[in-house]
Design a protein that fits this description.
Chain lengths: 393, 311
Amino acid sequence: MAIKDKLSGNEAIAVAMRQIDPDVVAAFPITPSTEVPQYFSQFVANGQVHTEFVAVESEHSAMSACIGAEAAGARTMTATSSQGLALMWEMLYIAASLRLPIVMSVINRALSGPINIHNDHSDSMGARDSGWIQLYCENNQEAYDNLIQAIRIAEHKDVQLPVMVCYDGFITSHAVENIELIEDEKVKEFIGEYKPQYSLLDRDNPISMGPLDMPAFYFEHKRAQAEAMKNAKRVILEVAQEFEKLTGRKYGYFEEYKMEDAEVGIVIMNSTAGTAKFVVNELRKQGIKAGLIKLRVFRPFPFEELGKALSHLKAVAIMDKAESFSTAGGPLFTEVRSAMFDYAKDTKAVSYIYGLGGRDVRPDEIMGVYKDLLEIARTGQVKSTFNYLGVRE
Amino acid sequence: MAYNLKTLTEKEERITGGHRMCAGCGAPIVVRTVLRALKPEDHAVIGVATGCLEVSTCLYPYTAWKDSFIHSAFENAAATVSGAEAAYRALAKVGKVKGTTKFIAFGGDGGTYDIGFQALSGAMERGHDMVYVCYDNEAYMNTGIQRSSSTPKYADTTTSPAGSEIPGKVQFKKDLTMIMAAHNIPYVAQTAPFRNLKDLYEKAEKALYTPGPAFLNVLAPCPRGWRYNTPQLMEIVRLAIETCVWPLYEVIEGKFILNYKPKNKLPVVEYLKPQGRFRHLFTKENEGLLDEIQKEVDRRWNRLLELCGEA
Ligand SMILES: Cc1ncc(C[n+]2csc(CCOP(=O)(O)OP(=O)(O)O)c2C)c(N)n1
Ligand code: SF4
Ligand SMILES: [Mg+2]
């Protein structure tokens, strides 16, 4: 029987980590992720896990220690936010290229400067090309579920890539919600025992990791890494199916909300999807055919699936909680629109950058976005492709 | 058992020949000697920071390392190896490890005194059972001989060039061994490939088999950066020691022990003279600079004698 509880996102993640019982956790405090290592170190102190908790002196060392541990054959996890993720940047690429299935919770927070502890997605968006799989979560339940699935995805023999599970700082990390937990034994059974193919501790088969690659080999190694990311697309769905059997909760690349007959829609990630669903419901009451897509898997990017899912819309708004300073929309917009070029050419697309640095996003503002889309749908004219939502100009 | 280089060299080498370090380079001798101090039945996980040693010994698809080896980046050899050591302890708890594994990190002076200093300090403070070995060639050699905080005063490097106004690096060398001693870890030693390598070997053995963190700072001359003739490697090391520029000492549980006291302390110019990086000091107008170097060497040496109870 599933266990009903009330937990904050960070508590839910810490509970999942207790259930996973990783061999090594190396972490460094940063708001709003700090609670994760805090709660977890209490589990260590109480002997509830067998984990070696390494309280490193920086996030750079956190990721470096995770790399050393995972390379030594240990199931390894960590958590961070914002500047912490930024400080790890160099090591993120190395973790992925060494094909180490580290699982990290990223509790999304704005990047400095100016320093700001509140939510947006500039931190994990900055790491989008680091070779990590990225899963995004609307709420506590999804954060918990994704973390458990992440272990299976990362360690799959055809993948062997690190995974970030991203959820919104404070909004998700600190707000207490109802949650359904899986029994400890069932989590254990679902993730299985970690049996790495290669390990530094395999004394009978010593290996060298992290060599210098000359131009004769580097490209092939990167190509193999890209292939693993392609494999992840398949594995993510396989793991989701098994997870559904276990819990009844369904996961895919993205969630389609009232999309079948929709004429206008938005593409959005994480907690704001909850607010946007409320707006969709309001619009539906007025007989307006509004829909929504909440992206779960940003890396690998579901290019074809997402493009096709938008093909029947007249207009779509792609909502970025991160600025890319390209002057041509946020990172999500750029990629979604690229997919639409092949699969949804007739759908008009506009970009909205919203909620930076924790700026509240109200239902009436999202309502405004749908109003803009309806106008585009009616006239077939896009007045402004690149937009900001809720900012003083 | 008394130290005998000849019998020890009969042990199987744990780093192969055929790596690409320059002739007359101190670093491979340091590595080979440290690894020789491992018990043959013990396995080792070796982490190396980016630098000359790493790029010359693990060039895909080749490796010179017979044990398990990992390179991840420049500034994090200590953190990377600390993670592997934590993994070992965690997996030992659940009965998943076989035999004894030793954990060793090698970093150049750049990867140790400078960019990797924080990771080193953190790993040592956390108490991982590992040995960190700095092979100190006193500059960033891999990128073409740039100054580090380990570069000695007035040395000519490519970012502290001797010019008509500034005679090379203007700062004295950072005393990292003392800083590591201040970490109050079980074992800290300063050593070099001296004479028959006894000092280096024995310190490596102590570092490896003292439980907890240990730090070795090993002088590892570089003929390209220091500009000496390659066959002179051992002579350069000898002069560093006989002039007290690089004293051999160890700190065991906080107790300072001097391992070698020159019978006849040589003037520092004897050490500086054969090295091209100090050539510009040997002019009439720069005599004062040589005096300044001598004074600082004497000051540090006298302080060490005091700490070792030898004053
Ligand atoms: C973060 C980072 N900065 C700079 C470099 C470039 N780099 C590679 S090796 C090196 C110098 C290494 O110096 P040292 O640690 O003294 O080792 P050596 O090459 O002298 O043996 C530098 C600057 C790098 N690889 N990574
Ligand atoms: S440049 Fe210097 S440190 Fe590097 S391999 Fe050559 S001699 Fe050794
Ligand atoms: Mg150097």
